[in-house]
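User: Teach me something about this protein's shape.
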Amino acid sequence: MRIPIAREGYVFIFIAFVPVVITGVLGVWWLFAIFLVVNLFVVNFFRDPERDVPSNENSIVSPADGRVIKVEKARPMLRMGTPARLMNSEALKVSIFMNVFNVHVNRAPVSGRVLAVSYNPGKFLNASFDKASLENEQNMVVLEAANGKRVAFCQIAGLIARRIVCYVKEGDAITKGSRFGMIRFGSRLDVYLPLECRVNVKIGDKVRAGSSTLAYWK
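Assistant: First, the predicted structure itself:
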């Protein structure tokens, strides 16, 4: 049976649990209560539940849990490297903001082949700011879907988030709804889709990675 906790969280959960044990043994109950709450928060942050992925082949699912903060036409805000060459036209951009209480495991929006993965260090501005898409630490994945169309999704670190994790590399084949990474402690994810896609969400909507439909292919 799979443990519904992201593997990146094991060490943090252990570290947070040590003072719970120590204060419990010493009988310092007010400290014990504080550390127990902290430990429960860490466990909750790294939870990784299973998701029901839509069976509709035309569906494009959300890569992140959170709230939709942008739905607009935009060019991918890319700094350099292969993604800038592969995604150089206007696209439909959907931005999802993840607070510290959301599940932070990220999932592939479509099935396909990874064309490029590009990590760029940067600042740690509030992830809801527009300039976070360009200036913050980020990791861009460009994917060619089974229908030959390209999508890009960018993990962006936020004010508190300080570590982006990406499991995939160039050449990998991934399936819709599969886990491809996570961001620790509050962040944002931008998705760039072909203009002809039909968007299924609006600003303010809450979405879940792997199960909420962001858009449909046309």
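Now, about its shape. The mean pLDDT is 87. The first strand starts at residue 59 and ends at 61. If you'd like, I can walk through any region in more detail.
User: That's plenty for now, thanks!
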